[in-house]
Amino acid sequence: MLKTFKIGGIHPAENKISSNKATEVLELPKTVSIFVAQHIGAPSKIVVTKGETVKAGQLIAQSAGFVSSNIHSSVSGKVAKIETVTDSSGYKKDAIIITVEGDDWDESIDRSDELITSTPLDAKAITDKILAAGIVGLGGATFPTHVKLMPPPGMKPEILIINGVECEPYLTSDHRLMLEKGDEVLVGTQLLMKALAVENAVVGIENNKPDAIKHLSTLAKKYKGIKIVPLKVKYPQGSEKHLIKAITGREVPSGALPISVGAVVNNVGTAFAVYQAVMKNKPLFERVVTVTGKSVSKPANFWVRIGTPVNQLIDAAGGLPTDTAKVISGGPMMGKSIGKLDVPVSKGTSGILVLGQAEGHRKTMQNCIRCGRCVSVCPMGLEPYLLMTLSEKNNWERAEDEKVMDCIECGSCSYTCPANRPLLDYIRYGKTTVGGIIRTRK
Length: 442
Known about the structure:
Layout: E1 24-25, E2 31-35, E3 45-46, E4 53-54, E5 59-62, E6 71-72, E7 77-86, E8 92-100, H1 123-132, H2 145-148, E9 159-163, H3 173-180, H4 182-196, E10 201-206, H5 210-220, E11 226-231, H6 240-248, E12 263-267, H7 268-280, E13 286-292, E14 300-305, H8 310-316, E15 324-329, E16 336-337, E17 351-356, H9 357-360, H10 373-377, H11 384-392, H12 396-401, H13 412-416, H14 423-441
């Protein structure tokens, strides 16, 4: 029987339109806009100036704290300006704008395709390389990876879980990475194991990717301690807490981190980036991005330099369809609609989804009929209808008591609501407000 989590969950249409599309290298843009905050934590400190010439892989913004991340140029060229740019969520953020001039890389980067499977580096040296390369979680959360490799005192990791679930509908960037860069993903997994001093790692993959399961299972025979585990298709299985529950049976307590139950979770894209950082000395300045949608003429997966404008990806996938109603950064469940197509790709951009008129408009909201569907599908065991009401009424004390901060923002509640209520929107608002109250308290 395939493993999965027990509480809640849904089965949205998968729509993995681009799963059979091999990853293509996207043409270099004319300019890139690289945010200095592409991660959870403190924004990085800019270390270049206007007019300065930079190379791909060069440090342009330095980590500004323990929970922060280095930022590197994704191109070679000249720093045109440093100004605020709108991100995919609609917020203004400081960014470094670089005019592209050729494609010169930092000389220390190994650009060969040769697979390297071993290193004399110890755990600290591996972690230091990951920190220097600006590696963050590429599943969407963008949590700095080096922080996960340095657990708090008294907490010891016992198992490393590599997240190859990709349960979000439409997205296929992780799927293609497992098929095309399987060895590199597994070497990256071994590097993470060494950094954590654990002997066992599990790569969890949903059963709708049988080719990836077969491919990695064959490759894993060469790598000690790594096991490939097929999982039942169920959303949101890619959530850290639910993946841990599915694979180990352990439940991460409310408000706690995965390390509290001996687990560390990293995305397959992160494992690949770790391989590149440690074995090839390559910082994180490009990633795979899926561009898809039912009306997109050429759905595709692209290797994209960080800072590339989204409209260039859409053009490469055949252009914006005439029936477009909405463009989403990410997937349909957890992604966010973007208002401008010139927003730049960041480290956390896993996909660009183009929705047509039939899918891209919200239906008219009606009164809650107390059917309980949102409660039955919530994978965290919460009461979404109640959390929405509390957020509407600004009842923050009770919202905190009702565990609004436990919401993983998966959108299962909104997806299943027959009254078309924007449950997740209000709960996100509630989480933001309550989170701010909690921080002022500390």
